[in-house]
Design brief:
InterPro entries: BphY/WalK/GraS-like, HATPase_C_sf, HATPase_dom, His_kinase_dom, Sig_transdc_His_kin-like_C. Keywords: ATP-binding, Cell membrane, Kinase, Membrane, Nucleotide-binding, Transferase, Transmembrane, Transmembrane helix, Two-component regulatory system. One of its GO terms (biological process) is cellular response to phosphate starvation. By secondary structure, this protein is of the alpha+beta class. Helix content is about 60%, strand content about 15%. It is built from ten helices and seven strands. The strands form two sheets. It has a five-stranded mixed β-sheet with strand order 2-4-5-7-6, covered by helices on one side. A hairpin with a 2-residue loop joins strand 4 and strand 5. The chain is elongated and about 125 Å long.
Length: about 325
């Protein structure tokens, strides 16, 4: 802060020093003026001037030090009290800007909330004809046509579900309900939805659940697993997908392994990035780059660590690590 003060008062300091040099120069060139006497007064004035500067520094920087140290939380009550006309001008400007920004932020929040509500309403309205369409598809006798239509219906269903959860994720904290979740029931429910697609692609499932219950939010865990299973089925053919749960270091692990096309090593660190699809399969139009991004955001809110290991053309393993009971109670107690 002292550096800023000296920079701000630099013109004053230079003006004072120039005055003293003029006095000394006048005493030097004029024999009738005692150089020692002038030098004495210059020395005395210099002490008084720098003492004055020190006192002004102490007084004038109080407000700006408090302004610099305040938490920038848009709360006008945190502003320090102005004690001078210039400080009052600064305070007034900050208050006006804060009020303007708060109004703009409130308007944006209202618009986002309204957009979210409209989108959720639209998705729920679309689900009704989509359910009716699924019932109509089940009545088709032509197995090949039925399988194709079911696959396209499932794609629309999954995209709508992803869009629904994408709109809900910013408000996920208000939507969490922690309970003892049955992994087996949850997995069978998700696999049943993908059944027709899996039959079409010749994909089976191998389940080994040593741990059958976890403490988490059932709905959001189902969404996370749905994104991983959808990718596993999408990029696999004529193979099994292995799902295994076990306990290690008082934590529950859930592993989902497919033997599909795998992920290139250079892409592995980016698969959870928003909008990222692939560099090796960049022509793939079926990928949105949103599924794993949303899955990780939901997992973070549930304090679940999600990671992936993969080898190109050999398959991919996604691992979900649930917090231990002690960690969970600490988290919930915050």
């Amino acid at each position: 802060m002292i550096k800023h003060f000296i920079t701000e008062r630099r013109s004053w300091i230079l003006f004072f020093l120039l005055q003293q040099l003029i006095l000394l120069f006048g005493a030097y060139v004029d024999p009738s003026i005692s150089l020692s006497a002038v030098g004495y007064f210059v020395f005395l004035f210099s002490i008084l001037f720098f003492l004055f500067l020190f006192l002004r520094y102490q007084k004038e920087t109080i407000y700006y030090k408090q302004l610099e140290e305040r938490i920038n939380d848009m709360d006008p009550s945190c502003l320090p009290t102005a004690r001078s006309p210039f400080e009052t001008i600064v305070e007034k400007s900050i208050l006006e800007q804060t009020q303007h920004l708060n109004q703009a932020a409130s308007k944006i929040r209202t618009e986002i909330e309204q957009e979210k509500d409209e989108m959720l309403s639209w998705i729920h309205e679309v689900k009704t004809p989509l359910t009716a369409l699924h019932l109509m598809i089940q009545r088709i006798d032509d197995k090949s046509l039925k399988a194709d239509l079911t696959y396209e219906w499932l794609r629309i269903h999954l995209l709508l579900d992803q869009q629904l959860h994408q709109k809900r994720i910013p408000f996920i904290k208000n939507d969490l309900y922690m309970e003892n979740t049955d992994l087996e029931t949850l997995l069978f429910s998700e696999l049943k939805t993908l059944q027709s697609w899996c039959i079409q692609k010749g994909i089976g499932f191998d389940l080994d659940l040593q741990i059958t219950h976890v403490l988490t939010d059932t709905k959001w865990l189902a969404f996370i697993i749905r994104q991983i299973l959808t990718n596993a089925v999408k990029y696999s053919d004529d193979s099994d997908i292995r799902i295994k749960s076990y306990e290690q270091d008082e934590r529950t692990y859930l592993e989902i392994t497919d033997f599909g096309r795998g992920i290139d090593a250079r892409d592995l660190s980016r698969i959870f990035d928003k909008g990222f699809t692939s560099t090796s399969q960049h022509h793939d139009q079926a990928s949105t780059g949103m599924g794993l991004y949303l899955a990780q955001k939901a997992a973070n809110s549930l304090h679940i660590k999600i990671s992936a290991a993969s080898k190109l053309h050999d398959g991919t393993t996604f691992t979900l690590v649930f917090p231990s009971k002690n960690e969970f109670h600490q988290i919930m107690g915050m």
